[in-house]
Each structure stands twice: as C-alpha cells, then as structure tokens.
Design brief:
The structure holds two protein chains of two kinds.
Chain A: E1 2-6, H1 10-19, E2 25-31, E3 34-40, E4 46-53, E5 59-62, E6 66-71, H2 72-79, E7 87-92, E8 98-104, E9 111-117, E10 126-127, E11 135-140, H3 141-151, E12 157-163, E13 166-173, E14 176-182, E15 196-199, E16 203-208, H4 209-215, E17 224-229, E18 235-244, E19 250-260, E20 263-265
Antiparallel strand pairs in A: 1-5, 1-7, 2-3, 2-6, 3-4, 4-19, 7-8, 8-9, 11-15, 11-17, 12-13, 12-16, 13-14, 17-18, 18-19
Helix pairs in contact in A: 1-2
Chain B: E1 2-4, E2 12-13
Chain lengths: ~270, ~15
C-alpha cells in the first residue's frame, strides 16, 4: 500500500508543469523515504530528476517499494481538476494497475476522486556521478528565465562564461549577438534577488537554449535557481520544491534537478 | 562548429 498526502495540491501541479513537456512518460519510484523520478527527454540530451521527501508530505505511507509508471501528460490533466488549495492524496494498492487521486477542498465537504491507469515502462536509469563543480551560480529564478527567453531571440545556444568579475550569458545568431552580465550582489531585505557566484576556476560552456527554456517551466516552484558547471560535464539546473503554507511559512520538500549535456567543439 | 553531446555520453546506464 502506498499513500501520500500533500496539503497544498498546487505544488504537484507546478511539478508536473515543470516536467511534462520534457518527458511524456516516466516512472515514480516510491520508497519509505519518499517519491522520486528520473527521465531523459526523447533525444537524450537532457535528464530530469525529481525528488520529494516523505517527511514533506502531511501523510506518507509506503509499505514496500513501488514503481508507478504513468503518462505525465494525463496525470497533469487530472491534477488540473484539483483546486490550488485542495489537499491531494495519491493512493496505490499493491499490484494494482491504477492509482487513485483524491482532492479534498478546503471547505471540507467536497471530495473528488480520479483514477489513472499505470503503465509498464522500460525505463533506463542512469547513474549520476558525484561531481564537485567548478562554478556555482545562485540567482533569481525569474531572472534566469528572462535571460534564456531573451537570448533565444538571438540564437539557439547560450554560452555561459564565468570569471572573477561575474557570469556572462551570451548568444550569437544571424541577426547579431547579445549578452547579459551578472555580478554578485546581496540584499538583506530581498534575499530572493541575490546573485551568488562561487568559482574555483574561470569557465566557458555552451548549451542549447531549447532545453534551458523547458527547464525554466519550474520557475514557479522557487524564487532562486542554482546552476552548477564544470568543464565538459552536463550543466545542473536545480530548483528547490517549496511548499508555501497558509501562514506564509515556506517548507522545502524536495527538488527538481535538470541535467543538460553541453555543446562541445569538434 | 560545436556539436551537441547526449547525456549518455556522461552518465552511464545502471
């Protein structure tokens, strides 16, 4: 038996919005410690890994490990039927070919139930090696989204260059070129606007904007995004999954990490 | 000319 309840169903909606264009089908692995998902896009250029901690749920029970393969586009459709303030419960019985989704409205007298068919997916799991990254940039998620969107007007790829003075995002195309430079800054009043750069050695790497623009669909999950880079390894774009409660308290319940293979000169 | 690598060039299948 598997049962997981989130008090703020909107978090699940945001997670699905963040991944369902990149991957259409994937398997959730459920264990006593939480739920996780790993999947590559169809061209195998990027990989998304979602992790939700069991203790981030208001109720979490997983008697034995389960793999719930499903069509994420369909799951997303069903989650659209839940109100943003609904409590959402996911239930799966051992050996069943479907999961149940239960939405409880805040008024406490309206309950909706949906079922979604499970699929047997031949998932390929990749081992992600422990890496210590040369450069880590923590910046406002909305700023990163804006930069990727703007530079995609200029070209298909962005070169991220990091030096002592800051980080540069630049693109070149038929019409010309463009760049956005950010230097480290911190504000006591608005920590969500901070740009934090940690660098061991200067670095410059190029990535396809098509994928980065897909990753920024996770922007509503968290005010800050972390980019981790090292020469000749995939870029990591990480968003924490933050549940905002009624009292405005923020609770980190997991993360989404996107890995993007670089473009490398022949 | 830069070439797009795939993720499986870096991460091995389990």
């Amino acid at each position: 038996m598997f049962e997981a309840k989130l008090d703020r169903g909107i978090v699940l909606k945001k997670i699905l919005d963040a991944i369902n264009q990149l991957v259409n089908e994937a398997s959730w692995e459920c264990t006593s410690s939480g739920m996780s998902l790993q999947a590559m896009d169809t061209s195998h250029v990027s990989l998304v890994a979602v992790n939700l901690n069991g203790d981030g749920f208001s109720k979490f029970r997983c008697d034995r490990n389960m793999v719930l393969g499903m069509n994420l586009v369909n799951l997303s459709k069903i989650l659209k039927c839940a109100g943003n303030d609904d409590k959402v419960t996911i239930k799966a019985a051992d050996g069943d070919d479907k999961i149940k989704l239960i939405f409880e409205a805040p008024n406490e007298y309206e309950v909706s139930q949906y079922e979604i068919k499970l699929m047997n997916l031949d998932a390929e799991y990749l081992g992600i090696p422990e890496t210590s990254y040369n450069v880590t940039v923590k910046m406002p998620a909305a700023k990163f989204q804006r930069i990727c969107r703007d530079l995609n007007q200029i070209g298909d790829a962005v070169t991220i260059s990091c030096t002592k003075s800051g980080v540069d995002f630049s693109a070149t195309g038929d019409l010309g070129n463009g760049s956005v430079s950010l230097s480290q800054n911190s504000s006591f009043d608005k920590p969500e606007d901070n740009v934090t750069i940690s660098m061991q050695e200067p670095l410059s790497q190029t990535f396809a904007l098509k994928y980065l623009n897909q990753f920024t669909k996770a922007t509503p999950l968290c005010s800050q995004v972390t980019l981790s880079l090292s020469p000749d390894v995939p870029l990591v774009v990480e968003y924490k999954i933050i549940e905002e409660n009624e009292e405005d308290s923020k609770n980190e319940i997991g993360h989404i990490r996107y890995y993007l293979a670089p473009k490398i000169d022949d | 000319m830069s070439k797009q690598k795939t993720i499986t060039n870096f991460f091995k299948r389990k």
